[in-house]
Amino acid sequence: MKTLDTNAPLTNFSHCHDGILAQMSRLSDLPALIAPAALARQTAAQTLAFFQGVMHAHHQEEEEDLFPAVLASAEKGEERMHIDNLIEGLVAGHRALEKLWHSLVPELKKVAKGQDSALDLVALNSFIERYKLHAAVEEQRFLPLAETILSRNGNHMAALGLSLHMRHLPMPMAHI
């Protein structure tokens, strides 16, 4: 605690205002911080909801429906080996992205709740950049090749479509 100068009592009041005014300056920054804080909470919550529901289902559809369909339709030899290598890399990418995602979830939950967080920004940026790269490989390399391979036989493309359709049908209720 600061010692009071009893010989200059008005100075004590003046110095007290220094601290109050400094806090008022910080308080004046508060309105500008509220919107970004709310956006951070909203972004974290939406991202958690999106990836919890979409990422695993998307990877599962690719691995259980798309990749096997393309492999089954690929011509033996060089094409099949190329597809095998692409799929091996994509599946490894899925596992790496999922692992990285799971490491981010606890801190993202804190951000979504407006709690203090030690969110690993290096891991977050790595997740973002790695997913962008993964998606680019799928979009630019794998999917055009899959289109070529599956289009050779209309039945193969139809079978993939049916498989995906069946996956998205609601489960029938069991009779009691």
Topology:
Blueprint lengths: L8 H20 L1 H44 L4 H35 L8 H31 L2 H15 L8
Helix pairs in contact: 2-3, 2-5, 3-4
Structural write-up:
- With 176 residues, the protein is mainly alpha-helical.
- The chain has one domain (9-168): nmb1532 protein domain like (Four Helix Bundle (Hemerythrin (Met), subunit A), Up-down Bundle).
- The protein contains 5 helices and no strands.
- α2 packs antiparallel against α3 (78-112), α2 packs across α5 and α3 runs antiparallel to α4.
- The longest helix has 44 residues, at 30-73.
- The N and C termini lie far apart (74 Å).
Helix/strand/pairing category = mainly alpha
- Using DSSP, what is the number of strands? 0
The proportion of strand residues reads under 5%
Cα distance spanning the termini: 74 Å
The succession of helices and strands, N to C, reads HHHHH
Overall structural domain count: 1
Low-confidence residue ranges: none
Radius of gyration: 28 Å
So what's the overall shape? rod-shaped
CATH topology, by name, is Four Helix Bundle (Hemerythrin (Met), subunit A)
Name the CATH class.
Mainly Alpha
In CATH, the homologous superfamily goes by the name nmb1532 protein domain like
Biggest pleated-sheet summary: none
Mean pLDDT reading: 86
CATH-derived architecture? Up-down Bundle
**Tally of alpha and pi helices:** 5
Q: How much helicity do the residues have?
A: over 70%
